[in-house]
Sequence to fold (244 residues):
Amino acid sequence: MTDELIMAYADGELSVDEAARIEEALKSDQSAQRKLAMFLKTADRLRAEPAPAIPDELARRVDALIADEKDRTAAAEPDNVVSFRRLGRSGFVPTAIAACLALAVGLGTGYTLKQPDQAGEGSPFGVAALADPGIEEVLASTPSGESRVLASGATLNLIASFVDEAGVLCREFDYEGVNGHSVVSVACRDGAQWQPKIAIATTGNSETHFAPASSLDALEAWLSSSGLGEALNAEDEQQQLVVK
Fold:
């Protein structure tokens, strides 16, 4: 059973017959059961908070991005097929683009998960969670659908794996801090390190630890525009993980 089908089932996007087949398969597939539980849990957290207010400068950048996206869409062949995973649960909407840009500013500029952190300083948006040194080892070895408790006491839930246009492995994960804070992020492998590309705070005090709250739309919009392929199946993911 693919991650795509499990995600579609979790989102209620399957027909009655398709959903029934998935439910039957879930009865005997413990790995799929864990993935379904993780997808539902993450979605609930992301839906719990409204999207942030957008600064004027960011709004102008978003307008330009939307215009570019419309131009690309108009130029595309009419028979092009786009995976539902890349379109997401609510489509590629302006508010979602704005939310994910607000959260993604500063990522991809040299920050790695191994970098030390002092009270959140030096981490993207002050998200101290992403400086946890235990994250990298788990990202490099743990299959999607599984969870690991780090030395810090935090829990890392592996959600899905993707390969970008350059063939680089990227992983979506949910970090549950011991202080109750939770962050959903996508990080891509960069040699022996992992580079976070987007970080969405789903709980916690935005004045001290996190950027403004975001929504499920933000993550889906970013995934839609990121150039990542579809979620890897277990076999393909394992092949990627063994590559150092």
Remarks:
- The two ends are 27 Å apart (CA to CA).
- The longest strand covers residues 155-163.
